[in-house]
Design a protein that fits this description.
The chain is an alpha/beta fold. Helix content is 29%, strand content 21%. It has helices at residues 36-44, 57-63, 81-88, 127-139, 157-163, 166-169, 178-187, 225-230, 248-259; strands spanning 23-24, 31-34, 50-55, 76-78, 97-101, 105-106, 117-122, 144-148, 172-175, 191-195, 201-202, 212-217, 233-236. Strand 3 (50-55), helix 2 and strand 4 form a beta-alpha-beta unit.
């Protein structure tokens, strides 16, 4: 294995440009976010375009508990829980609050500044899994989550609720060609680690002391062949039990914990 730079070292990267092109996940659509954590995060995000906040009086009071000015100049409509049920859809746990928004613009790779841990999703399309991975990545201090502009879920209330606010806290970067994006990161001294339950080496057996990109494949098919070839290492989680694999969002959580710096 080649000598690797120290984790968290700053590399010679192109600085983000003030006119970096951003591609919205959907140019003109609007949708609803729901749930207290999700809506609170969206309200605090200056890049988020908010159209209408619909809430019960109690939920609105809970939103304002920590910050009275949180709602700002967002239009507010007071509704009953039953009315909110109809707006958020069947099975949605709205907790008395719904926010009509425009999708966030997706940033491109050139907008990425200094980083220590990046999570790359190779055609993971399930919004529950992507949302859960976003939440975990945010919790472990990842700098961004990278997806492709095809074979990746668009922003929806389901994805945002699964992310529990992380969608508005953590940048999502959208690329047209995942292979080229990985090559760009490798040129910037990022060690690219693919996660695969069939890999020979375990994550626990390796000591990676540098900036990392954790690459995750879709449920069932895993990483694509070309993506695997571009990885610096293929690693698996050590599973002592009978079941040798995890749901991709659970595997991501374990891997991010193992790769996170320990104080």
């Amino acid at each position: 294995m080649s000598k690797k730079p120290t984790r968290f070292q700053k590399n010679n990267r192109r600085a983000p440009s003030s006119n970096t092109k951003r591609t919205p996940s959907s140019a003109t659509s609007t949708h609803v976010l729901y749930g207290l954590h999700t809506v609170r995060a969206a309200l605090t995000n200056p890049e988020r375009i908010k159209h209408l906040l619909q809430a019960t009086p109690n939920a609105l009071a809970r939103l304002k508990e920590e910050n009275e000015s949180l709602v700002g100049d967002t239009n507010v409509e007071l509704l009953t829980p039953r009315e909110l049920d109809k707006i958020s859809g069947p099975g949605a746990v709205h907790q008395g609050v719904v926010l009509k928004v425009s999708p966030l613009p997706r940033k491109d790779l050139a907008s990425l500044g200094d980083y220590r841990l990046i999570v790359i999703l190779d055609q993971i399309t399930d919004p529950h899994n992507v949302g859960a991975i976003l939440r975990t990545a945010c919790a472990f201090g990842a700098s961004a989550v990278i997806t492709t502009n095809r074979h990746a879920p668009q922003e929806t209330g389901v994805l945002a609720k699964s992310a529990s606010g992380a969608l508005d806290y953590l940048p999502m970067i959208e690329v047209g060609n995942l292979g080229e994006a990985i090559k760009t990161l490798k040129k910037q001294a990022v060690w690219c680690v693919g996660l695969d339950s069939e890999a020979d080496q375990t994550l626990e057996q390796t000591d990676i002391d540098q900036n990392i990109a954790l690459i995750l494949g879709a449920e069932g098919k895993g990483l694509r062949h070309k993506t695997r070839q571009l990885c610096d290492q293929m690693l698996r989680l050590d599973m002592p039990g009978t079941i040798k694999s995890l749901n991709v969002s659970n595997a991501a959580a374990v891997a991010m914990y193992a790769l996170s710096p320990k104080s």
